[in-house]
Amino acid sequence: MAEIEKVEGSNEQNSSNFIHNIIDKDIENQTYGGRVYTRFPPEPNGYLHIGHAKSICLNFTTAQKYNGKCNLRFDDTNPVKEDTEYVESIEADVRWLGFEWDKLLFASDYFDKMYECAVNLIKKGKAFVCDLSADEIRQHRGTLTEPGKESPYRNRSVEENLTLFENMRNGRYGDGEKVLRAKIDMSSPNINMRDPVIYRIAHAEHHNTGDKWCIYPMYDYAHPIEDAIEGITHSICTLEFEDHRPLYDWVLRELEWEAPPQQIEFARLNLTNTVMSKRYLKALVDNGDVDGWDDPRMPTIAGLRRRGYTPEAIRDFCERIGVSKANSLVDIALLEHCIREDLKSKVETRMVVKDPLKVVITNYPEGITEEVEIENSKEDESRGTRKVTFSRELYVERDDFMEVPEKKYFRLFPGNEVRFKGAYFITCQEVVKDAEGNVVELQCTYDPETRSGSGFEGRKVKGTIHWVDANAAVKIKVRDYNYLMIDDEKGETIINPESMKEYEAFAEPSMAAVKPGERLQFFRHGYYIADEKLSADAEKVFNQIVDLKSSWKK
Ligand code: ATP
Ligand code: MG
């Protein structure tokens, strides 16, 4: 997976892919009477992540393209790990992404039907109750090169199997004591077809069915039945299920379903610097490595939302990466590119100083405040201007000063003149230091003739920097992020110990009015959002959505 895929930008609506080609054929052949019905089937055992977004977009937009329907179905056949908190978060995330399902369904609502189907298989001699332990079943299974061994319980009579299965259902046995297995072929080259387990015993409380059941169907058996019950036509899943497709087809064939749905596999999304497994993400949450499922560093939909990503950017990303049959690794820079593209004309710009250094304009009168006018958006003139106060004492970024300038450094250094955005040309005159030699203040002068908008053309300066008025500034917290997962020297993926940096920053006065959830560009810094959870207090917290410069190349 070392090779990072170069993805072509494509933003076309209704773009096609190999799945759509299959559907086109099905429509032509009237396989499903021209119907297209898809579903997104998450297991409610965690929050959705960006990989799920790919599947959501694919399933819902495919249905839209063909005037079909798409269900949200909770694949809740495993009682132990599932929870209603996850159910609720998944519904919210799908809606936030901009999709509305035809029906909201739970696989567990089909437990009766699935049981009935299992009884049918037993009656047909296609399923049997097996007393082998999980370990023994594994030992009997064989390998890729050797056939498996038949279970000694394989030839039980239909009557005995029916009785034993009913006993299983009635709680007569402990967990693991018995299973129901499909009777297929222990010498099949496909290990999934070697008498797979289709029901197991689990005395566990289920989030939906409570303690009604103590036997639960296995995924490979349950999923085709769920699809068939709902009238799904195209059951889209990820590539690791390709080898399970013969079993999917076997279940529906043996149950004699008419016009059975077809399973189509596509490559799952893998992203650089991103771990995408609910199990792993849950461990991060449980260990306290992050501040919950919606921590802005998490690749969850909830995390991306809190980070300031828009549904439009995520959908655009899913469109651009496309759908294929080959596994690959997508550069996270593409996702960052998509949010920049979306925000650049949508949000206004403000000045924020993250790491303040005091500037005193020695020739500017004391006790005077003037207002300068600055454009709200470079991309969109119609957003007009705002007034920003300017006075004798200001803050600039510590980074915008160098006592001994490097080559090509055009910002503040002794003797140099720069433009203060929207205000005046300012010259750095003196550097004030504390007892330890740290720079604590710059004494500067301004040239009144150079006021922005005055038409001054006397001379040019190479640098423009931002600033805030020290007397009017609003205190905010700014959180800049780095990737949560990085590779160490040995090439192993570890949790980045420096994935967040918080600044006590100064913002221009207009930012007192920013509401939680509002997005802005901080001039020269990047895009930010007022944190929804933490910005109700007087001192607002801003999450960095993305920085300004793109490392993504077409
Ligand atoms: P995880 O291992 O993260 O729990 P999962 O596949 O077990 O993922 P499900 O809840 O079963 O999670 O997934 C619901 C749907 O989302 C499935 O159809 C699955 O194939 C799809 N999906 C999950 N991860 C990705 C991914 N990285 N890229 C594309 N689709 C994905
Ligand atoms: Mg899963």
UniProtKB/TrEMBL annotation:
Reactions this protein catalyses: tRNA(Gln) + L-glutamine + ATP = L-glutaminyl-tRNA(Gln) + AMP + diphosphate
Entry GO terms, CC: cytosol
Q: Domain tRNA synthetases class I (E and Q) anti-codon binding spans what residues? A: 464-531
Q: Does the keyword Ligase apply?
A: yes
User: Where is ATP bound in this sequence?
Assistant: 43-45, 49-55, 238, 268-269, 276-278
Give the location of motif 'HIGH' region in residue numbers: 42-52
Tell me which residues make up the Glutamyl/glutaminyl-tRNA synthetase class Ib catalytic domain: 36-344
The protein's location, in the record's own words, is: Cytoplasm
State the source organism's domain of life.
Bacteria
List residues of the Glutamyl/glutaminyl-tRNA synthetase class Ib anti-codon binding domain.
350-447
Q: Which GO terms describe its biological process?
A: glutaminyl-tRNA aminoacylation; glutamyl-tRNA aminoacylation
Q: What's its EC?
A: 6.1.1.18
The family annotation for this protein states: Belongs to the class-I aminoacyl-tRNA synthetase family.
Q: NCBIfam families in the record, alphabetically? A: glnS, PRK14703.1
Record text on subunit structure and interactions: Monomer.
Q: What is this protein called?
A: Glutamine--tRNA ligase
Q: Which organism is it from?
A: Sinanaerobacter chloroacetimidivorans
Taxonomic lineage of this organism? Bacteria, Bacillati, Bacillota, Clostridia, Peptostreptococcales
